[in-house]
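Slide 14.
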Amino acid sequence: AGGLRVGVLTQDVRIDEALTAHQASLGDTAEHTWAGDAKVREVLDGLGLHEVGLDSVVGTMSGGERRRVALAALLIGEWDLIVLDEPTNHLDVEGVAWLASWLKARRGAHLVVTHDRWFLDEVNETTWEVHDGTVDTYDGGYSAYVLARAERDRMAASSEQKRLQLAKKELAWLRRGPPARTSKPKFRIDAANALIADEPPPRDEIALQRFATARLGKQVYDLEDVSLSFGGRTLFDDVTWRVGPGDRIGIVGGNGAAKSTLLKILVEQVHPDSGTVRVGQTVKVAYLSQEVAELDPMLRVLEAVEQVAKSVDLGGKPVGASSLCDRFGFTGNAQWTRVGDLSGGERRRLQILRLLMGEPNVLMLDEPTNDLDIDTLNALEDVLDGWPGTLLVVSHDRYFLERTTTVTSSLMGDGTIKALPGGVDEYLAKRVRRTGSAPAAKAPKGDSGTAKKELQRLERELVKLDKREAELLAETAGKAADYAAVAALDTELRGVRESKETTESDWLELSDF
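Slide 15: predicted structure.
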């Protein structure tokens, strides 16, 4: 309308396979021309196009690489409005952080369809929820939307009780997590606190780890001096790494850092060149790969689930196959849909359901959030809260990682695996130090130099408390059979969490100064 320039990124990327990455993203622009354009250089670097290779032919690229080329072409263009459909798919956590920073700095409107809740919080001022043939509008990003939805569901009929319960649970987690989540505009802290006054923490970490140790014993996976090279690249160089009972580990790293390969080593689909991989005798693993498993297309959804088991124990309670289907969005007649008629996202949901019905004691999830909507992600997180086993998650979805795991391990691309007490933020900081570039960070609010210094002190204190909390959880897992030691550790853990809550409140108050 009126000459409005609109650029669109769809989920189904179509690029002429005969073109090179350079031609597809920059057209016939000569290198000496675009090399002097700061915007072009920033986009190519931020999306890792140099790693893909500007001379690479589109026809030889993976789906993820093609998508990055298409996204680069869009961002380099001049548009009044850009429309992005699931733009974070196939980006690593570093790429997602860069894209969020780029969109916030850009002058112009954008419309984003995404299941990435961290990304929603970062880039949006308004959120639209599409449901039941209607569109509801909320001021603010995802955190503000969760609060508004919880308030709306509280006033709805009792039939919405389950939805309200999940909304309150997520809201409580948002308030207990890093302060930045709920310092967002339009997030009304007093209203949130009133709604979650009686809401317990999402997980009882001590009880889950004790139960996991009883099911798994002391050994789950031990990698010792493991090395692996592929195509002239060293993926793992003399790595020693331990996964214990009840560990909930998020695994991060750039594209091509061998995150999926690490899981395949653990499930013995890939064998290292040297070193030892020891697997506990009681390990019963379920592995969700990025490929959707093929099932008999004539099977009904409920039949496909009951093929594995009729019921499953979750959080100490038996849950029937039909009830679990219901929790994952297969309600009523949808449970009798043929597998062959399901969409890609529905097949992914069914794949996860079947894994859970097998009652594994080790669960490995490789990019589990791909093709899932936010309601399904909430349901999966709710199920994992009561799941007493070892959990390994590879994901670019920061929100999901923070919500479901307690420890972060990173593959830095140098053949090592490193524990990161500071989670994804620490990973991004380490990447900045290595590459020398990063998304621009916002300065703390407030005009006073004293206030800024106090904010920085509180942030350092939060990092220390997070680190101590992770250490106590690890110590507890290692001493699960020593109930006196567990009790002492539990007392200290409660104290650390109380200190953390107080420090976060101080941070929130000062950040609004």
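Speaker note: The radius of gyration is 23 Å.
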